[in-house]
């Protein structure tokens, strides 16, 4: 039986890495027990936006990690990321997967505003699900990491949602899009139009050193979102004096950095370990005690073996 499971894992990994399956295929490897799931909870009824909450059983005052999926701002659904919610809950966190509006329904910055509304809702409702409103983290993959970064690095989004960026204890980005000028792809040009406003979409240009702690993770084998996005943002935040940590994987692809959160794949890499350590450490650090970190600068992650 174990060999059968291992074989199925290998097939799903190969299929996922080559783009033949969606992230939802990884849910086949995800336990359905060991956590409480509150599904399809409305966080913005006027826009019909919902989220799923994965809570460790019996937990109280736990850190809350709000995850935004990737999909180039044009595709994705929270239902495909049960494996992320389970992974976060397995470490004692409240894992939250939120839908947000996509292009062509909306353009920038509407999807970032949706993310801010999700944070505001969690700040008001986290205790109901065993979480702490004082320990909210935002996390994302690719375009979802862009949303998370904008929330962490620019105050106006949380302000428009009736909240404050000070509500965020940290931001985690997996293979994120933070520095992608010039914009040449026709779809992206329309998403971030008009051209004279393209710069407003770039997190790297807003680094002023007053951001909550950030953990940026990226693989050097990423052929979707260039690793220079992570390196540029990390350098800008560090220069501005903000708290920033990076983990670089020499042989990690764009898809594998998110797939490696799925069970039983997660034991082959340390992505979830770095996320867990970061959330735990900053949850236990007094507000106002944030300092630029040197420990996380330039850490080389353990890559997933490629046979």
Assess the beta-strand content as a share of residues: 15-25%
By oligomeric state, this entry counts as single chain
Rg, Cα atoms, Å: 18 Å
Which structural category fits the helices and strands? alpha/beta
Shape call: globular
Number of helices: 9
Could you give the count of β-strands? 9
Helix content: 25-40%
Question: Low-confidence spans: pLDDT under 50, at least 5 residues?
Answer: 1-5
What order do the strands of the largest sheet run in, or round the barrel if closed?
1-2-4-3-5-6-7-8-9
Distance between the termini: 22 Å
What is the overall pLDDT average?
89
Order of helices and strands: HEEEHEHEHHEHEHEHHE
Biggest sheet descriptor: 9 strands, mixed
Protein model, in words:
The protein is α/β, with parallel strands linked by helices. Strands 1-2-4-3-5-6-7-8-9 form a 9-stranded mixed beta sheet, with helices on both faces. Helix 2 links the parallel strand 3 and strand 4 (94-98). It has helices spanning 2-17, 82-90, 110-125, 143-153, 156-160, 186-191, 228-240, 254-259, 271-283; strands spanning 35-44, 49-56, 62-68, 94-98, 131-141, 168-174, 214-219, 244-249, 299-300. It contains 9 helices and 9 strands.
Fold blueprint:
Blueprint: H1 2-17, E1 35-44, E2 49-56, E3 62-68, H2 82-90, E4 94-98, H3 110-125, E5 131-141, H4 143-153, H5 156-160, E6 168-174, H6 186-191, E7 214-219, H7 228-240, E8 244-249, H8 254-259, H9 271-283, E9 299-300
Parallel strand pairs: 3-4, 3-5, 5-6, 6-7, 7-8, 8-9
Antiparallel strand pairs: 1-2, 2-4
């Amino acid at each position: 039986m174990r060999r059968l499971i291992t074989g199925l894992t290998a097939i799903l990994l190969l299929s996922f890495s080559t783009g033949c399956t969606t992230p939802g295929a990884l849910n086949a490897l995800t336990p359905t027990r060991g956590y409480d799931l509150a599904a399809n909870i409305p966080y913005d009824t006027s826009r019909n936006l919902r989220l799923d909450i994965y809570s460790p059983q019996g937990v109280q005052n736990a850190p809350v990690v709000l995850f935004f999926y990737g999909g180039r701002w044009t595709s994705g659904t929270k239902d495909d990321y049960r494996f992320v919610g389970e992974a976060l809950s397995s470490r004692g966190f409240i894992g939250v997967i939120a839908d947000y509006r996509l292009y062509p329904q909306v353009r920038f910055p509407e999807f970032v505003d949706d993310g801010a509304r999700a944070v505001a809702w969690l700040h008001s409702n986290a205790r109901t699900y065993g979480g702490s409103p004082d320990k909210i983290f935002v996390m994302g993959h690719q375009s979802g990491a862009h949303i998370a970064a904008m929330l962490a690095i620019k105050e106006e989004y949380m302000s428009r949602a009736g909240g404050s960026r000070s509500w965020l204890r940290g931001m985690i980005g997996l293979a994120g899009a933070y520095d992608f000028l010039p914009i040449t792809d026709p779809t992206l040009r329309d998403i971030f139009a008009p051209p004279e406003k393209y710069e407003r979409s770039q997190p790297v240009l807003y680094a002023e050193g007053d951001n909550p702690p950030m953990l940026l993770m990226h693989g050097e084998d990423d052929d979707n979102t260039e690793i220079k996005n992570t390196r540029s943002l990390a350098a800008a935040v560090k220069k501005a004096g903000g708290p920033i940590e990076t983990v670089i994987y020499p042989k990690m692809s764009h898809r594998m950095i998110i797939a490696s959160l799925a069970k039983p794949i997660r034991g082959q890499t340390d992505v979830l370990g770095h996320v867990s350590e970061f959330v735990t450490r900053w949850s236990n650090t007094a507000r106002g005690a944030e300092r630029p970190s040197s420990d996380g600068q330039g850490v080389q992650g353990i890559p997933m073996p490629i046979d």
